[in-house]
Amino acid sequence: MKVQVLHLDAPHQGGLASPHSIQNVNLRVPLDLMQEVERLALYEDWSNQAWLRNAIEAQVRDTRTRLGLDESAA
Fold first, then answer.
1. Residues with Cβ < 8 Å from 43, sequence gap 6 or more?
2. DSSP designation for 11
3. For 22, which DSSP code?
4. Considering just the CA atoms, what is the radius of gyration of the chain in Å?
5. pTM, whole model, 2 decimals?
6. What are the start-end ranges of the H helices in 1-74?
């Protein structure tokens, strides 16, 4: 199975982390596990665009919470 790892630059003061590269990694996994991952990927829309959007949204949420800017925590 081939996975892509997103590398982020460290957040700057008061800012967010920014992506700077994507690394391709080959993983050896059993066939049944690979089929389950493929099924989940299709079912849950693990496209590159969706994955990147979700990763960025999670980073924004985490940073806003850490900086005390999260409206839901107020």
1. none
2. P
3. E
4. 16
5. 0.38
6. 31-43, 48-66
Token pair recorded at residue 14:
């008061």
Reported residue count of the chain is: 74
Beta-ladder partners of 47:
none
Question: What pLDDT score was predicted for residue 46?
Answer: 74
For 36-60, b/e burial (b = at least 16 CB within 10 A) is eeeeeeeeeeeeeeeeeeeebeebe
Query: What is the sign of the dihedral through the CA atoms of 44, 52, 1 and 7?
Result: negative
- The Cα 13–Cα 72 span in angstroms is 23
3-class secondary structure, 70: coil
| Average pLDDT over all residues of the chain | 79
DSSP, collapsed to helix, strand or coil, labels residue 64 as: helix
Domain ranges of the chain: 2-73
Q: Which is it for the CA torsion 25, 1, 51, 70, positive or negative?
A: negative
